[in-house]
Amino acid sequence: MYDAAGNQVAQQADGDSEEAVSIPSPAAGTYTIEVAGYSVPAGTTAYDYLDVFYSSSLGTVDVDGSTPVKLATGASAAVSATVTAAAPAPAGRSFFGQVQLVNARGTVAGLGSVVIEKVTQ
Fold first, then answer.
1. For every one of its 121 residues, what pLDDT tens digit does the chain have, with 9 covering 90 and above?
2. What angle do CA 61, 66, 69 make, to 5 degrees?
3. Chain-centre distance of CA 2, in angstroms?
4. For residue 97, which of 30, 61, 86, 115 is within the disulfide window of CB 3.0 to 4.6 Å?
5. Which among 90, 89, 98, 93 is positioned nearest to 60, based on CA atoms?
6. Beta bridge partner(s), residue 112
7. How far apart are CA 14 and CA 20, in angstroms?
């Protein structure tokens, strides 16, 4: 990932097909992403790209943590949450939220996400 001046500000390469680059507290501006294919078969290869940023100023997803969720290995559970968006997403963008299921030791045992398609006031 490069900033507007062409300086490399982040990179990720661990040899699998799912790479992610994170910049904690990035400066405002324009960034360029460069994907360097590795072990690409002959012909063409399609890449999926998703950029996201997290900020509590955009809104919140709150789950009632007072009721424990008990799950067997491989099981799933439905939980209720309240989604609060501070404003509609900019044109061409959408909001999503993520919650974590944390065990009694504080280890993340699962993830859940929600896509917010429309904000009404």
1. 999 999 999 998 877 777 888 888 888 899 998 887 777 777 777 777 777 777 778 888 888 878 888 888 888 888 888 888 888 888 888 888 888 888 888 898 888 888 887 777 6
2. 85
3. 20
4. 61
5. 98
6. 99
7. 10
